[in-house]
Design goal:
Elements: E1 2-3, E2 12-13, H1 16-42, H2 47-57, H3 59-66, H4 72-91, E3 96-98, E4 109-111, H5 114-130, H6 138-141, H7 143-167, H8 181-187, E5 194-195, E6 199-200, H9 201-207, H10 209-229, H11 234-252, H12 254-257, H13 261-264, H14 270-283, H15 286-293, H16 300-329, E7 335-336, E8 339-340, E9 343-349, E10 355-361, H17 365-368, H18 372-388, H19 397-421, H20 423-431
Antiparallel strand pairs: 1-2, 3-4, 5-6, 7-8, 9-10
EC number: 1.3.1.21
Main location: membrane
Catalytic activity: 7-dehydrodesmosterol + NADPH + H(+) = desmosterol + NADP(+); cholesterol + NADP(+) = 7-dehydrocholesterol + NADPH + H(+)
Length: 441
Amino acid sequence: MEEIEEFWGRKIRASWWAATASLFLIVASPLWLFWNWIGLEYFGGSYLSEIAGLRRDGILAFSFQYLPRASTKASQGYIAWLCFQATLYYFLPGPISTGQLTPAGHLLKYKTNGLSAWTMTHCLAFGAAYLGYLDLTIIADNWEGLLVASNVYGFVLPALCLVKGYVAPSYVGDCKYSGSLVADYFIGVELNPRLGELFDLKLFHNGRPGIIAWTLIDASYAAIQFRDHGYISNSMWIVLILHYTYVLDFFVNEDWYLRTIDMCHDHFGYYLGLGCMAAVPNIYTIQCQYLARYPVNLSHTQAAAILVLGMGGYAIFRSANHQKDIIRSSNGQCDIWGRQAQYMRCTYKTEDGRKHESLLLCSGWWGFSRHANYLGDLMQAFALGLACSSTQFLPWAYTFFLSAIMINRLPRDEARCRRKYGKDWRTYCAKVRWRLLPGVY
């Protein structure tokens, strides 16, 4: 895609290659999600056995026999879930937070009541299970139909948002049209599609149905392991601890999420729509899905080391993001790691012609590397793969999926900063040489 340098927002014309790549990902993404489920359900969690089965049966026979089927019960449950989360998003009280300035100069307000929604949802689910009104295994027992429903919605949602972007965009100045219908569907037209003043479709779908479901799905598969094997393995407990820590951190710091690349730069299309509605509940829970079927019992030393690695990654992720927030909220008047923060004052311009100022931190984790928060994310992902202690590739799917996202996101993030800050960004890169890990990358 050709980037136009006048402003730092997404300015693109989709080349034939970009449109072709978009079409490939649109088709391949749900097939990969189905492939993982088939491997877990029928082939012992082994890609090699699955490939052998595909070669033996042929594509048509294999697909007819193994592809997941929709079910009325799961589809109705999925629709009810979406409606329930939308109701909580709209009606639950919560703080009104301010996002980051958009390329067109809009400073948007968001209702950040995610922690209340997560807490209410889990209290209702666990309370109903405790009282005997709900079996926690219901999600895992109906996962085949839920997998299909989430993928169907992941296709329909960006199509509706595409039509809205063409017909009734919320903020015209932040809309980007690539000249390719396929690329617009994949990348998205609107930066912040909204229904009314505060119902932000991107924040809702990025941060409600999928991520709240994440920890409920984990709990359901832990219940399956207990039902089928009579105990919950220490590897399952490690995954649960790391996942619940990450998700709770997301909601406790939901205001921080408004300043991430997802919210500030990525437009809302298939990439985020299917990613948050289908990939998150399916790929992010892959370790629990695997361990429910194939329990792994780690030694005490192994369990402790993996937990330390995962929580260490979380600590880096959280402290790096906190440092970036505090330097800007204090206008540079703060200490980082016990010393006066070192930073650069940079200017940038929005498309309305106005100049603005921002601070780039050059000490702490942000002096260590330009994306230390990504390093923390990757450490957690690696620990989750280790918890499965498997020679199979499938339980590592999340680790490689997140790595691919980071490999894609890191240069996009840097390109956006380069366009936004110009020569100031080049000066910053000279001060902080390494992108991710000093001496490596």
